[in-house]
Write a structure and sequence with these properties.
The chain is α/β, with parallel strands linked by helices. The chain has two domains: 76 residues, CRISPR-associated endonuclease Cas1, N-terminal domain (Ribosomal Protein L15, Chain: K, domain 2); 199 residues, Four Helix Bundle (Hemerythrin (Met), subunit A) (Up-down Bundle). It has ten helices and ten strands. A four-stranded mixed sheet has the order 1-5-7-8, sandwiched between helices. The chain has a four-stranded mixed sheet with strand order 4-3-2-6. Strands 9-10 form a two-stranded antiparallel sheet. A hairpin with a 6-residue loop joins β3 and β4. α3 runs parallel beside α8 and α6 packs antiparallel against α8. It is globular.
Length: 297
């Protein structure tokens, strides 16, 4: 069953009773309840919202990701369980013992998929894509020649042709929308990794002492073009909008429920992310050099 996302943008008190999450508006006190087992994500985006420890405990027991937004209404914190799989210790051991050649080849496979999806998105939009596509065939083990960065320069130049765009987290529109979409995607990937008994802090490529989720950053790469596609649609539908608003956030969150193609079959992105995480766990256990990723149409 596809997990639900609860997005809190008004002052609520959140509690839990009999495995039901209880949302109580602070203005009128009229309760809404929902089974915790149905929830995949709870996004807290109002400074006056409160939540009980019991509710947090139940959400963690269900492997529900709790995302806390900052004063700018951007995801700033992520709460996940320390153990999300009954074979957690065994899975973690295989992850730690993974060889460097295996990790480099998995990164090669991941970047090839990312670049191919970027090229397919450009092609579907009728934009120049050949220069991006060529870099996919040039990716070596560990991407030692930097094909990801080379492809990126062509990609961003062509994705938003009617604006002087430069990808910069602190830059002009639509960077804020990209930041938000990627943050939600990152949380979804981290949740799937934990659910498969893996530790998001141990990446196959990304390594940063200040980054708690480098493995999620690794695995989300081929999924980024799906967020980019959503933002292109938003720009086309809302041409006068240059700020991140509630409607745009809702559309980006909904992207996780949209269908993607994997192995010739269509399924919601959240299901695909789970399959990607499972394939990574299997790669660690059986030394398999390939992963399951979705393909852009």
């Amino acid at each position: 069953m596809l997990k639900r996302t609860v997005y809190i943008t008004n002052p609520f008190h959140i509690s839990c009773r009999l495995k039901q999450l209880i949302l109580t508006p602070k203005e009128d006190g009229k309760e809404t309840t929902m089974p915790v087992e149905d929830l995949g994500f709870v996004i807290l985006d109002h400074p006056n919202t409160t939540i009980t420890l019991a509710a947090l405990q139940e959400l963690q027991a269900n492997n529900t990701a709790v995302i806390v937004c900052d004063a700018k209404h951007l995801p700033a914190g992520l709460l996940l369980p320390l153990e999300g799989h009954y074979l957690h210790s065994e899975r973690l051991a295989t992850q730690i013992q993974a060889s460097e050649p295996l990790k480099k080849q998995l990164w090669q496979y991941t970047i090839k998929y990312k670049i191919r999806n970027q090229a397919k998105l450009l092609e579907s939009l009728g934009y120049p894509f050949e220069a991006v596509k060529r870099h996919a065939d040039e990716v070596k083990s560990g991407d030692t020649s930097g094909e990801e960065a080379k492809a990126s320069r062509h990609y961003w130049k062509n994705l938003f042709p009617n604006m002087d765009f430069r990808r910069d987290p602190d830059g002009a529109w639509p960077n804020a929308a990209l930041n938000y979409g990627y943050a939600i995607l990152r949380a979804a990937v981290a949740r799937a990794l934990v659910g498969n008994g893996l530790l998001p802090a141990l990446g196959i490529f990304h390594h940063n002492r200040y980054n708690a989720y480098p493995l999620a950053d690794d695995m989300m790469e081929p999924y980024r073009p799906f967020i980019d596609s959503c933002i292109v649609e938003i720009i086309n539908d809302m041409r006068d909008t240059t700020e991140l608003n509630r409607e745009i956030k809702a559309r980006l969150i909904h992207t996780l429920s949209s269908d993607v193609k994997m192995l010739g079959e269509r399924s919601p992105m959240l299901v695909a992310i789970e399959r990607t995480a499972t394939s990574l766990s299997k790669s660690y256990e059986e030394n398999i050099r390939q992963l399951l990723y979705p393909e852009m149409n």
